[in-house]
């Protein structure tokens, strides 16, 4: 797919890596950049893969729910406590540690589902053509590290 566009979202996000041998097993946070890359074989009638605004409209609210939120392994013995205390600001990862890799995959799946919805929507202000695909999602961890998911 020769055409690619990207949009970066910034979120403040915490996680606990229960299997980590060092400090990462304790609650801690990262200022993360989430980069979404979409691709298409051809451009739409506006000469775009799709409008950048379409990405924000499709995904903004979802990523907002991960902002100032804590990603947790549901197998964490304190998962129930955290969820009771912080409600929707706890983002569950089903029996897996919420590493940047797992986060990138979860966001990739969400982007793909939301793109399908957007391309099926009729009369959208920022239409998404059916040929638009999510190519990859990159999630930064620190200024020197990131993880990426693609298929
Ligand atoms: N492959 C992965 N490795 C690590 C992840 C991860 O999500 N995927 N996460 C962590 C921790 O969350 C940690 O906060 C970040 O680790 P690190 O980059 O080692 O952070 P430092 O700032 O301590 O790095 P230094 O360069 O050693 O100062 C760990 N690994």
UniProtKB/TrEMBL annotation:
It catalyses: 7,8-dihydroneopterin 3'-triphosphate + H2O = 6-carboxy-5,6,7,8-tetrahydropterin + triphosphate + acetaldehyde + 2 H(+). The keyword DNA-binding does not apply. It is an enzyme of class 4 (lyase). It comes from the Bacteria. Pfam families: PTPS (PF01242). InterPro entries: 6-PTP_synth/QueD (IPR007115), 6-PTP_synth/QueD_sf (IPR038418). Gene3D superfamilies: 6-pyruvoyl tetrahydropterin synthase/QueD. Its EC number is 4.1.2.50. One of its GO terms (molecular function) is metal ion binding. The keyword tRNA-binding does not apply. Its cofactor is Zn(2+). Keywords: Lyase, Metal-binding, Zinc. Pathway: Purine metabolism; 7-cyano-7-deazaguanine biosynthesis. Belongs to the PTPS family. QueD subfamily. This is 6-carboxy-5,6,7,8-tetrahydropterin synthase. It comes from Termitidicoccus mucosus. The lineage of its organism: Bacteria, Pseudomonadati, Verrucomicrobiota, Opitutia, Opitutales.
């Amino acid at each position: 797919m020769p055409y690619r566009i990207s949009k970066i979202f910034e979120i403040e996000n915490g996680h606990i890596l229960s299997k980590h041998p060092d400090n990462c097993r304790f609650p801690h946070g990262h200022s993360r950049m989430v980069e979404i890359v979409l691709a298409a074989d051809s451009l739409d009638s506006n000469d775009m893969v799709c409008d950048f605004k379409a990405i924000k409209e499709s995904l903004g609210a979802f990523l907002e729910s991960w902002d100032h939120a804590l990603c947790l392994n549901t197998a964490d013995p304190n998962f129930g406590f955290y969820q009771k205390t912080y409600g929707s600001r706890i983002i569950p990862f089903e029996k897996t540690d919420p590493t940047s890799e797992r986060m990138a995959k979860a966001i990739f799946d969400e982007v793909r589902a939301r793109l399908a919805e957007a391309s099926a929507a009729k009369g959208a202000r920022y239409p998404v053509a059916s040929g638009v695909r999510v190519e990859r999602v990159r999630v930064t961890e620190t200024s020197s590290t990131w993880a990426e998911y693609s298929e």
